[in-house]
């Protein structure tokens, strides 16, 4: 049973526009959330995270929003650039899970010129 | 610079063979993880270790084993490879910082079982 869901397998966006990636979770014990970015033939790389005590975290062009009541988080990329074309994974962790992460299935983002 | 490496990067094997995938990290991290990535499933945890001599089963551990004899290495063994184990395998490591851990991933091993 997938506890972290990314329901959009793909997203196409024009360069310069906003990319919005969504992620839903079912386990109320999750209290730390991460986004990873993955290029073909490479391992995932950490992008940004948020803990459940916050509802927003920003890092440059990347902002993650957390809505705990809806068990939903989103990643905003503004403005989108061609180098942002990659697969994005949402992941979640519980404080008692000692570092184990549950991953979503991923969203393929394509940024077009 | 600290890094995490995996070898081989590509492997083709036959059904029933034993296969070992290597993972080596120089971060000096206590935690190490093995995942497999399949379309539609994201990354699923196979085995993990919190330190030397410690190993634990993840959600898809059947047919796999690991051993941790030092901090740097966590080899993954497929005892008798099956076609269902054709996948891309990623190793990761993280510090022991309570429950909040960013994991660092290796480049992956693409395994094909014929």
Would you write up a description of this structure?
The complex is a heterodimer of chains A (113) and B (114). Chain A has 113 residues and is mainly beta. In chain A, 0% of the residues lie in helices and 56% in strands. Chain A is built from no helices and eleven strands. In chain A, the strands form two sheets. In chain A, strands 2, 4, 5, 9, 10 and 11 form a six-stranded mixed beta sheet that branches. In chain A, strands 1-3-8-7-6 form a five-stranded antiparallel beta sheet, with no helix packed on it. Chain A is globular, with a radius of gyration of 13 Å. Chain B has 114 residues and is mainly beta. In chain B, a hairpin with a 2-residue loop joins strand 5 and strand 6. The mean pLDDT of chain B is 94. Chain B has strands at 4-7, 10-13, 19-25, 31-38, 42-51, 54-57, 64-66, 76-78, 87-94, 104-105, 109-113. In chain B, strands 2, 4, 5, 6, 9, 10 and 11 form a seven-stranded mixed beta sheet that branches. Chain B has a four-stranded antiparallel beta sheet with strand order 1-3-8-7, with no helix packed on it. Classes of the chains: A mainly beta (113), B mainly beta (114). The interface between A and B is medium-sized, with 29 and 28 residues.
Low-confidence stretches of chain B: none
How many individual helices of chain A?
Answer: 0
Shape descriptor of chain B: globular
Distance between the termini of chain B: 37 Å
Work out the number of β strands of chain A.
11
> Which chains share the greatest interface?
A-B, 29 and 28 residues
Form type of chain A: globular
Helix and strand sequence of chain A: EEEEEEEEEEE
- Percent of residues in helices of chain A: under 10%
- Helix tally of chain B equals 0
Classify the beta-strand content of chain B into a percent band.
over 45%
Q: Compute the CA-based radius of gyration of chain B.
A: 13 Å
Overall average residue pLDDT of chain B: 94
């Amino acid at each position: 049973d997938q506890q972290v869901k990314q329901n959009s397998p793909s997203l196409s966006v024009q360069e310069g526009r906003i990319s919005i990636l969504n992620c839903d979770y079912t386990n109320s014990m999750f209290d730390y959330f991460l986004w990873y970015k993955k290029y073909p033939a490479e391992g995932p790389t950490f992008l940004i995270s948020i803990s459940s005590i916050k509802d927003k975290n920003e890092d440059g062009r990347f902002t993650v929003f957390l809505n705990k009541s809806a068990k939903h988080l989103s990643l905003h990329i503004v403005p989108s650039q061609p180098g942002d074309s990659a697969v994005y994974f949402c992941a979640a962790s519980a404080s008692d899970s000692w570092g184990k992460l549950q991953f979503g299935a991923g969203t393929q983002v394509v940024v077009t010129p | 610079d600290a890094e995490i490496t995996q070898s081989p990067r590509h492997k083709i094997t036959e059904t029933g063979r034993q296969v070992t995938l290597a993972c080596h990290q120089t971060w000096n991290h206590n935690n190490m993880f093995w995942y497999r990535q399949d379309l539609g499933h994201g990354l699923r945890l196979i085995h993990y270790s919190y330190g030397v001599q410690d190993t634990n089963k993840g959600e898809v551990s059947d047919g796999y084993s690991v051993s941790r004899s030092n901090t740097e290495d966590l080899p993954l063994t497929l005892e008798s490879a099956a076609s269902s184990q054709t996948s891309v395998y990623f190793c990761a490591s993280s510090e022991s910082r309570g429950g909040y851990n960013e994991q660092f991933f290796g480049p992956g091993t693409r395994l094909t079982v014929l």
